[in-house]
Amino acid sequence: MRHPGLRNIKTAIAVIVCLVLYRFVNREGAAFALIAAVICMQGSVDKSKQLGFDRIKGTFMGGIFGSVFAYFGIPGLPFPLFILCTFVGVVLFIYICNLTDSKSSIVIGCAVFLIIIADSSNSGQPVLYAFNRTLDTLIGAVIALLVNQLIFRPKPEQFIGEETVNPVFHYKHTCSGNHKTVKWRCGEIEELYVYPEQAIYQDLDFDFRLSVTKSTDAHSIASKFPGYTRQLMLLEGDLSLSHKEHHSVWLTPFETDIFKGDWETTSVGQSVELNLILGEDYSGELQPVFAGNRYTLKNDHCTAFYIVEDNVKLSFQNGGKEYRESLSKGDFVIVSWFENGSEQYTARFLDTDTELIVAVKIECRKR
Fold first, then answer.
1. What pLDDT digit, counting tens, does each position of 209-247 carry?
2. How many CB atoms lie within 10 A of CB 240?
3. Average model confidence (pLDDT) for the chain?
4. Omega of the bond prior to 156 within 30 degrees of 0, cis?
5. Residue 47 reports pLDDT greater than 80
6. CATH for 172-366?
7. Which of 13, 82, 102, 265 has its CA 20 to 30 A from that of 251?
8. For 1, which DSSP code?
9. DSSP assignment, residue 95?
10. CATH 2.60.120.10 residue window(s) in the chain
């Protein structure tokens, strides 16, 4: 039976702190602070540092948007016009966040904006109402940040460096940005690994290949790989795949589609995808990895991890021995191809948020 994770407990603590604070100062608007505390709680101290201020920035951005709408009386417009303005406001706010690389601000910023415009018409002073709701949300965000920093803070740990070669098992760590990248007509492809390593991708003489495709074109036609099987997992965005005379599928993040490499395949959607291409003599699978879970590294498999979150800590264990690594989003590690079949290792991601997907596990093996 799985016990509540630290994120679970710290979220509840942040909620209680908000309730006590608002009761003590006799201030209205506790609900808005509570919502912000829940939204802004992160799974670890590192994520709290990295994303906490983005959420606070989103609070201010949403508050400014809502205040402008309230100032011009948009919440009091006839309902059809109000709906139209709300639609435009949400689209514009998300667009600005994406444009300014503030994706982590979108959720909390939209929440503040919508709270203000949905309820400020009931207030005699809509701009003051907008200010107070922004302040309430800010209080909740700051409390979540402080709770995550001060309560159940893990002790500092030492990890092996990126260039350290583990003497016990084969290990290769490629940092994000250091992968071989090639342009293609609909975006770019990062090649993570090809086996054998001396194989030439264009000659189709590889046993299996793993890559990340970033599609910037809304519509594309997949390259063909006769004699191979493809597994595609969506990492970001939305993606519709259509395999002529076979099947069609709409993927959401961390869902997978399997199809033959010689099928006529078209895709619709701007997305980031993890692609595994397997030769006839090989099988494999892509599996989302939740923090805290343990994974046995089989010595007759090639096991790898593609990291999808920042500040991820990975532990390899064998008996009383432990080796650790600190990884970032976009990093790729291969942690097996054991020569000594007697060794048995487990891998575990140490993030305290057990509901967070931190990586994708890739396993390949000869049939």
1. 999 988 877 788 888 888 899 999 999 988 899 999 999
2. 14
3. 80
4. no
5. no
6. 2.60.120.10
7. 102
8. -
9. H
10. 172-366
